[in-house]
Specification:
single chain, mainly beta, Immunoglobulin-like, five-stranded mixed β-sheet, four-stranded mixed β-sheet, 1 helix, 43% strand, binds copper (II) ion
Length: 115
């Protein structure tokens, strides 16, 4: 049984690796920063599971050039123009965590965490 389980994992790995984000474990969610702010503004994740947030900023016309996710101790995470950057978090508690621009706490992004 053990061997079968191990083989199942090995077979599954290339499928996971084929995901777009480099070296990500778990799920990746892509978030764009456009003239409308974060797209999407709200994402849904599971408690205790690592999730990689891949941010791509496509405009210079908003103040969202770096972000904070205070509940995850992410501060001043820089978002270069037209270059995706990823941050992996593992939310520990169900609830809602916010993310927003570092400069003014704007953008009103929400991470909805379920059990
Ligand atoms: Cu701002």
């Amino acid at each position: 049984m053990r061997l079968a389980a191990l083989l199942a994992v090995l077979v599954a790995l290339p499928v996971l690796a084929a995901d777009k984000a480099p070296a990500a474990t778990g799920k990746t969610i892509e978030i764009k920063v456009t003239e409308n702010g974060f797209e999407p503004k709200e994402i849904k994740v599971k408690k205790g599971q690592p999730v990689t947030l891949s941010f791509l900023r496509t405009t210079d016309r908003t103040c969202i050039k770096a972000i904070d996710i205070p509940a995850e101790k992410v501060k001043g995470f820089e978002l270069p123009l037209n270059k995706a950057v990823a941050v992996t978090i593992t939310p520990a508690k169900a609830g809602v965590e916010k993310f927003h621009c570092t400069a003014m706490a704007m953008g009103d992004g929400k991470i909805v965490i379920s059990d």
